[in-house]
Amino acid sequence: MTDNNTVTTLERIANLLRIHSIEATQASNSGHPTSCSSMAEITSVLFFNVMHYDPKDPRNPAADRFVLSKGHCAPILYAAWAEAGAFPVADLKNLRKIDSDLEGHPTPRLNFIDVATGSLGQGLGFACGMAYAGKYFDHSAYRVYCVLGDGECSEGSVWESFAFGSFYKLNNLCAIIDVNRLGQSDPTPLQHDTETYRKRVDAFGWHPIVVDGQSVNQLLAAFKEASELTDKPTCIIAKTFKGSGLKGIEDELDWHGKPLGDKAAENIAHLRALVDEATLVRPQIPKVTAKVPELKKDKQIKLSSPPNYDGKKEIATRLAHGTALEKLGKGCEYVIALDGDTKNSTFSIKFRDAFPNRFVECYIAEQNMVQVAIGIATRQRYISFVHTFAAFLIRAADQIRMGAISFTRVKYVGSHAGVSIGEDGPSQMALEDFAFFRTVPNIVCFYPSDAVSAERAVELAANYDGAVYIRTSRPNFQILYKNDEVFEIGKAKNNKNPKHEHHLPRYRCSHLNKTYKEVQRNSLVDNSHVLLPDQNIRDLTDVYRRDKHFLEQQSNTTSQNQTVIDTKQAENFESKYCVKENYYSIPCTCDTSFVGRIIQNFFDRMKFGVEFFLFMGDVIQHRNQFVEYNYPFVPHSTCSNEMATLNEIRNQLNTRPTPVKHTTTSTYYDIH
Amino acid sequence: MTDNNTVTTLERIANLLRIHSIEATQASNSGHPTSCSSMAEITSVLFFNVMHYDPKDPRNPAADRFVLSKGHCAPILYAAWAEAGAFPVADLKNLRKIDSDLEGHPTPRLNFIDVATGSLGQGLGFACGMAYAGKYFDHSAYRVYCVLGDGECSEGSVWESFAFGSFYKLNNLCAIIDVNRLGQSDPTPLQHDTETYRKRVDAFGWHPIVVDGQSVNQLLAAFKEASELTDKPTCIIAKTFKGSGLKGIEDELDWHGKPLGDKAAENIAHLRALVDEATLVRPQIPKVTAKVPELKKDKQIKLSSPPNYDGKKEIATRLAHGTALEKLGKGCEYVIALDGDTKNSTFSIKFRDAFPNRFVECYIAEQNMVQVAIGIATRQRYISFVHTFAAFLIRAADQIRMGAISFTRVKYVGSHAGVSIGEDGPSQMALEDFAFFRTVPNIVCFYPSDAVSAERAVELAANYDGAVYIRTSRPNFQILYKNDEVFEIGKAKNNKNPKHEHHLPRYRCSHLNKTYKEVQRNSLVDNSHVLLPDQNIRDLTDVYRRDKHFLEQQSNTTSQNQTVIDTKQAENFESKYCVKENYYSIPCTCDTSFVGRIIQNFFDRMKFGVEFFLFMGDVIQHRNQFVEYNYPFVPHSTCSNEMATLNEIRNQLNTRPTPVKHTTTSTYYDIH
């Protein structure tokens, strides 16, 4: 099938790549030369025979894609690109140096890298996204290749991607598992049991091909076989040896992530003889032959029509998000939406119904969904909007982190945020999400407070050249803004005094440190409305129980709803149950009548010396009167104090290590 | 095999549980009765024939365990426990009420629940932990059952757990997949393709049994078969129908998470006829026959010997952690350690070598590792220490979140924290970890600054009745504390003025807002040491490049290391590249000589009006002289400002949306 000369040349190049991997890691005195060696033939065959690409134009949208999921093998990847002509081979020895972009793990700071890897188990999902875009959006013939380590196949995210790849029949996708048997600290669980890999891959709907991964011949045949499939992706299970070709090192434990040290010279000499570089003629790299459609891009992406609310009907921000996304899709053909089987809750279903060909159902696999979204968004072609409950977005925290290192432009949309999901319980409530998203480099976080600002958040997100988090809520809310209100990233609005804009992220609520009475006097709230520590629905129960328990122990209780209490008692209560600063915010619950009563009781006792701390978004507009300090857009660095306070309160009030014994409502337990 | 009477009774109980599920969700006007109905027979057979347990002592350590991975089916789980006698059946109608612990998703606030579920795909990992403890720690005959939904089988964490269960031959574990075909918004990807489920389960090393999940007979036979296996876990693939037995609802889409509404009465009447409750004799629940060893527990868990450092040799906190964990293991037989193939980096290997039977290698599957740790720690028997790189712990963020709702006592140990991992690149650096861990309810976070405090952190963690995060670092550090130093949770120390303790979490660094000169005058730093924005190793590169680029554009540069610069230029530089507040902290890098030079240049220009912001831990002790503001223990709420600042700086300095084109050191790019 393939002539001997081709095979020999690719074998020699494989050894040349081994040499570069050894030399670079010697120079940096760190790195993973043995993990590189096991994939030397795979790399040689892919980069010098199989893949169609242009080393001088590595981001060519019609070129084949390559993803190195086992990112710690960066040295051999850099070596392949250098040998292909992307940059001078001499630069390889700058690996891991402080002033070089040839970092220990690849990132798109290098123009031949599409996605950052180095946190294991993510590459295949990125590749799935690229292949999905190739097959269904670009309708192009380019192919996607992804090399995985065997160790990382323990990551569940890998199997999410396997399931995705077969479900969507991504025959343009080829994964290669480098089964080199050895992990970092031990052999991998399956070691060289390629038959089990074959069974798993087959069961997950891929076409498995088991090969000797050190055999150029077998690899060439396998890639050919893969390219001929029409209905499913291929997975080449390559049996290899860690440190393959390295004397005294091959297939030995304890060589993970270590340069060869004093074993380097001997091995390099041996490999040099095999390469015989003086006579090596590098093969022509296959030219890019696939075509991709040009995407017409406007400078500014706009909603097809402005928000259109009459101000009478309450609208949930999640619904407004869906409305806006659909409008965005009308004007912009490169907007894509993904959802994890929650589209009828997040309202991404509105986009799906309008543009079924630009919607990707990812099922309940958030990690893979984010990976696919990042893959789709590579090479700056498509803008992905990812949807699920905000609580479950954090399942993909590591993927979102890696996305930031990849400079991704993915927009994350988390619905059902905060306590307003009420009766479903804490597992469904996103409370931690903001603290995490704040730390994502370069991200912009939106927490729109009404339908108008939600629609504009979507529009601003599409135009922001980076990742965005949009946090939406379940309940219907009143409309706070006029349909033509103009919003900007980094600016909050003051509804009571529209001219007083809060410039974020420097804004802090310190001027809200007033007592309840002062606040009342200043008409920030009126008497009919009450405040409560910001917490989830469970806390309300606790407060109620504690409240009742407390009241039961007092003799001067006059009625269920009216409590007369002396200051001393109240102080004791406060010191026992409340955080020192007495920060409180406005409650959000689905059972307002009931909660209203609790809150009233609570604040009847709490109206001395309490400082206020207004929480954001859904909390605020849930009770219409509290719109004064309403943050339509909350950038990443604004809510650190809020989150800390929320957490402190919750720590004290919400969770207790000792669970209660009873489930009836007649028993009240002590708060520890 | 089984008499007709038993089968008929279990069928009638299944319908009774259906009725309860409908009635409870009618009362709460929310919930998932159709998802409950598909698993009615599974529940009936398990709770009234198969499982050995005591409804009056649900946390009996020798009883069989049950985990409802599809937590939204809480109503039928509550119904089973109520019918078994754990609490009054009448209470079932308090489902989801604000003053009831019968929440929308189960939590261990209920004494018959071991782990909170509701975020999908986690139950099987918890069950794996319970089964591992049963087989290898308790050496007991109790069995573990876990019901999964088919939708959640898209979660990769489920397949991590399948791989774990077979690798450790957990024949005491039985999973049941309720293949009811329908997800929330669409059919599941595999619908009723039970053959593919069978192949996947088989490939992952479990014993698969495909049954009609609505057939009591087939379920009874399957559970019997499962109990007879000796070398692998069993997975029963139960073909069922969503809304099974409910007229006009069974197998129909759009019935996810909805009460039956006006279809309830008719269906209840129909089911009541089938149950004929008046003549129903509930079977005897199989008694607990397994035995578990009693664990001798001391009131205080202590290191077997105090820290023992001579103060001359530098020691990494990760190594000190390993040392302490080994010491802890000597004195306390119920300490368990887990690692994700990083044990030679986290130094949990020291514990493994000393106590191989109490160490669980979880391979590269962080989600399952945390789930297993939580499962092992249930019923308050064992204390699990989980280990991996801090950067990869966040892979299990959702599991850690759910662990908090479960009141788990798991101790999370993340190594290689912060920028000190240097040349490996940002993917390996844990920078976001603290922001996330801070939000975990009730957690205590330790960031020990030297070996002595690291050892004591481990001891304090073991004694804290809740989750703990211990953040360790890679480089060797000097010893700061005497071996007999006493540490307490919530108190930081001031090394310069040992009597001045910082009481955390209220401590803020505001008094450090001094100019560089002022700081110098106050001898907080001396001239030979220099400061830099806190950032990862990439930033240093940026600073260097910018620095050099900047210097190249200046004519008054005298030499590479000495820069004379006028104030105006410096101001321009500052306004362009630096965050407004000018917060800086102390660098941490592996290339100190090189960085030292950069920093000196940088601060030669920066020594006007710069305010200082000291970051914590590894940053501080990395340069010995900066020990004055050293935080041995950083509780959860301390570092909000630090993180915000770190992030702001990083956003401006570190990441740019446009990647550079070149990899050589000769090209400098503009900062956007």
Automatic annotation (TrEMBL), chains A, B:
CDD domains: TPP_PYR_DXS_TK_like (cd07033), TPP_TK (cd02012). It comes from the Eukaryota. The keyword Cell inner membrane does not apply. Its cofactor is thiamine diphosphate; Co(2+). The keyword Zinc-finger does not apply. GO terms for molecular function: metal ion binding; thiamine pyrophosphate binding; transketolase activity. Keywords: Magnesium, Metal-binding, Thiamine pyrophosphate, Transferase. Pfam families: Transket_pyr (PF02779), Transketolase_N (PF00456). SUPFAM superfamilies: Thiamin diphosphate-binding fold (THDP-binding). InterPro entries: THDP-binding (IPR029061), Transketolase-like (IPR051424), Transketolase-like_Pyr-bd (IPR005475), Transketolase_BS (IPR020826), Transketolase_N (IPR005474). SMART domains: Transket_pyr. PROSITE patterns: TRANSKETOLASE_2. Residues 315-479 form the Transketolase-like pyrimidine-binding domain. Belongs to the transketolase family. This is Transketolase-like pyrimidine-binding domain-containing protein. It comes from Rotaria magnacalcarata. The lineage of its organism: Eukaryota, Metazoa, Spiralia, Gnathifera, Rotifera.
